[in-house]
Specification:
With 377 residues, this protein is mostly helical. Among the domains are: 113 residues, Ankyrin repeat-containing domain (Serine Threonine Protein Phosphatase 5, Tetratricopeptide repeat, Alpha Horseshoe), CATH 1.25.40; 53 residues, no CATH class. Helix content is 69%, strand content 0%. The chain is built from 24 helices and no strands. The longest helix is centred in the first third of the chain and has 16 residues. It is flat. It starts with a helix and ends with a helix. InterPro entries: Ankyrin_rpt-contain_sf (IPR036770), SecEffector_AnkRepeat (IPR052050). It comes from Phytophthora rubi.
């Protein structure tokens, strides 16, 4: 079967399918055991890899038939493998057929859920520009254009990069590609867009804030060095950096420049997601009570892993009102966060009402670890 698919022998493929097909099959329901299904799925990918569109057309209905009564994602992985194999080897006819097939059977949107390497990237890295251009312009599918742009820049495919940027701009909004590349830290692609398209102050400022939020110091330094970052743009970028995750290095770099306004610093404190950032600002600035309470309340309602460390730091501030301490205590009990419950249960600001409410919530949510702590009271 695989040899026939490799060589495009449709008549032999048809004969072999008939031989492995179950005896009780009919035109409506094809019966294949698991081994036969795996073989046919492998064969259709091999056929695509070698550009045999007729064999792909012959076998894809069988692949669809395997999963006729199940959700489409059952056959989608095979369809994606077929399309990737064709694109990566430059077989435009097969690519066009598979795109049409996906649209006909209404699973084309699944291709917009990007794999680690999507079909367009396979075409580009394989050097198959005709296929790449079709996917960019003619397929109607939302490929990972940002990643494709990075690859095109790396491969010095300027014409393709420009085409991708044009399509991205039409589908989304203006300079979003510039900002998104900055956020993901793709420095060379950022430099390319700056040199060819995005030299205005607004675009540079927006990308600067995105790079800061992503924690990419090299992109931040490059954009800052252009000389177009206004005071307002710097403040915004500083706030974005503080609200990011694992961005302490960029926060420290920007803070040490002493360009952030006091208002921006207070807003940044309230939005920070890293206790190291909070401590940096608290130790060096006069943070307002309002910013502390906003940060505390926001942390109570958050769901990220570092919230206990932030709670521990902020709960030590006497300006945090008892109502917010109560809310945090009840929330911790409801979530089963024994570490935070243990921290707050000895706080004099926790009311008896909150103690009772937290206990009830822990019972309802069956948070045994919290109940054991509260029984110790």
């Amino acid at each position: 079967m695989l040899q026939a698919a490799t060589n495009g022998y449709t008549d032999i493929v048809e004969l072999l399918v008939e031989r492995i097909e179950g005896d009780d099959s009919d035109d409506e329901t094809l019966q294949f055991d698991d081994a036969a299904q795996s073989l046919i799925q492998e064969a259709v990918v091999v056929a695509a890899e070698h550009g045999h569109c007729a064999v792909v057309q012959q076998l894809m209905p069988l692949v669809m038939g395997f999963h006729r009564l199940t959700y489409l994602s059952s056959y989608y992985p095979t369809a994606r493998s077929v399309l990737d194999a064709a694109a990566g080897n430059g077989h435009l006819e097969v690519v066009k057929f598979m795109v049409q097939h996906a649209q006909q059977y209404r699973y084309a949107q699944q291709f917009s859920i990007w794999a680690s390497v999507d079909t367009l990237e396979h075409a580009l890295t394989g050097g198959h520009l005709e296929v790449a251009n079709f996917l960019i312009d003619g397929s109607g599918i939302f490929w990972n254009l940002k990643r494709a742009f990075v690859v095109a820049v790396e491969m010095e495919l300027a014409t393709v990069a420009e085409r991708i940027a044009d399509v991205f701009t039409r589908r989304f909004h203006g300079d979003n590609l510039f900002a998104e590349l900055a956020h993901s830290g793709d420095l060379e692609a950022v430099k390319y867009l700056y040199n060819t398209r995005c030299k205005d102050e607004r675009s540079v400022g927006k990308a600067f804030a995105s790079a800061a939020n992503g924690g990419h110091a090299d992109v931040v330094e490059f954009l800052l060095g252009i000389g177009l970052i206004s005071s307002e743009a710097f403040d915004k970028a500083f706030e974005h950096a503080c609200s990011g995750f694992e961005t302490t290095g960029v926060v420290t770099y920007l803070y040490n420049m002493k360009r952030a306004s006091l208002k921006a610093i207070n807003r940044a404190f309230a939005a920070a997601n890293d206790v190291a950032v909070l401590k940096l600002l608290d130790e060096n600035e006069n943070i307002s009570d309002e910013s502390v309470t906003v940060a505390f309340e926001r942390n109570t309602n958050s769901r990220f892993n570092g919230k206990h460390e932030i709670l521990e730091f902020l709960a030590s501030k006497p300006c945090v009102p008892s109502e917010l301490i109560d809310e945090a205590f009840v929330a911790a009990a409801t979530e089963g966060n024994a570490e935070s419950v243990n921290l707050l249960r000895g706080d004099s600001r926790v009311s008896d009402t909150a103690m009772g409410e937290a206990f009830v919530h822990a019972v309802v949510a069956n948070k045994q670890n919290v109940l054991e702590l509260m029984y110790e009271e």
